[in-house]
Amino acid sequence: MRNRPPARRGTGKRVAVLGAGSWGTTFAKILADGGADVVVWARRPELAREIQEGKRNSDYLPGVNLPMNLRATSRLDLALAGAEQVYVSVPSQSLRDNLKLAAPHLHADATIVSLMKGVEKSSGLRMSEVIAQVLPIDPAQIAVVSGPNLALEIAKEQPTAAVVASDSLETAQAVASVARNRYFRSFVNTDVIGTEFGGVLKNLIAVAIGIVDGVGYGENTKASIITRGLVEMTDFAVAYGAHPDTLAGLAGLGDLIATSQSPLSRNNTAGRLLGQGYRLADVVKQMQQTTEGLASVGPVLELARAKGVEMPIVEQVRQVLAGTMDPKDIAPHLTTDDEPKGERTLDDQAQGGSAVRRALKRAFDQLRDGGRGARGDRP
Fold first, then answer.
1. Whole-model pTM above 0.70?
2. What b/e sequence results for 275-290 when a residue is b if at least 16 CB atoms lie within 10 Å of its CB, and e otherwise?
3. Domain 14-190 is classified in which CATH homologous superfamily?
4. Residue ranges for the binding site for sn-glycerol 3-phosphate?
5. Which CATH code is given to the segment(s) 194-334?
6. What confidence tens digit (pLDDT) does each residue in 168-181 have?
7. Which one, 39, 42, 299, 379, has least CB within 10 Å?
């Protein structure tokens, strides 16, 4: 298999998926079930062989049968040969190196789609920014996918939705038309910043929820943290140029609910182990795959400080990770301020952040954009 390309059976758009972890393999299944001609690249030859010949990925998706038309290889050149769309699902901290390896084999007009939810530690860049920095391509060739997407549930074909974002609405629509099938629906928007940061920030809140769950706190505590966490997510993303409505959509609230509440979430699981008293090093050893939330805490807090955004939930998660706060003491939704604070930020209140005013603003935006509603999630 290493010396020849896997036999071609598909008849749809030729796409490649880089990364054969749970999400990469699941998304390859989504694409293949939607009719695309898909080759997934696995770094380990034995994993590529299992996917190619056995139509299984027992390491990451036990018990799931993969489509017969889904192909796999451990050779990047074969995976990328002729690919019109390239979906990237590798650990965020290895993205830059993987892109350098892939660059010689990419078609000049290929669309690069990020499936990752993290920021680069060394630079604080979002994944789409790393792609734009490493590859000599037009920003309109870059898209990101985010939403309430727990891999194993989708691999079992439980219905869900996601949002595809790109600076180019045409690119987002082209990706969404391929990344959809009878159990997976893709919506589109042009808010790359909000869509990407939503996927990053919800991981941090999910770790906090896992911590309080591991400690043994109940639903009131978790609901308070989820709600206040969404405020932190929105304040942060808007400070960096995102549209607030994006954080109330699939890439923000939708993903936050799924990731915070499910035992299938790696971030929730890592937090729960921390709450039960495990040290960070032991948690990392127990996790089979990269837990993006743990890696993103430091970079996100640095970015927040640069914009003057307060993130008490994420700050307390950092303290638990550093071992300077007992998990039992975590209560980031509470405040010790002498004076009561508004539920929303003062800036939001001053700008008229009511639901009515936001609705009027959306209506104005739609009229300005010719009725297209370019900022919102759209099918």
1. yes
2. beebeeeebeeeeeeb
3. NAD(P)-binding Rossmann-like Domain (3.40.50.720)
4. 117, 147, 202, 255, 265-267
5. 1.10.1040.10
6. 999 999 999 999 99
7. 379
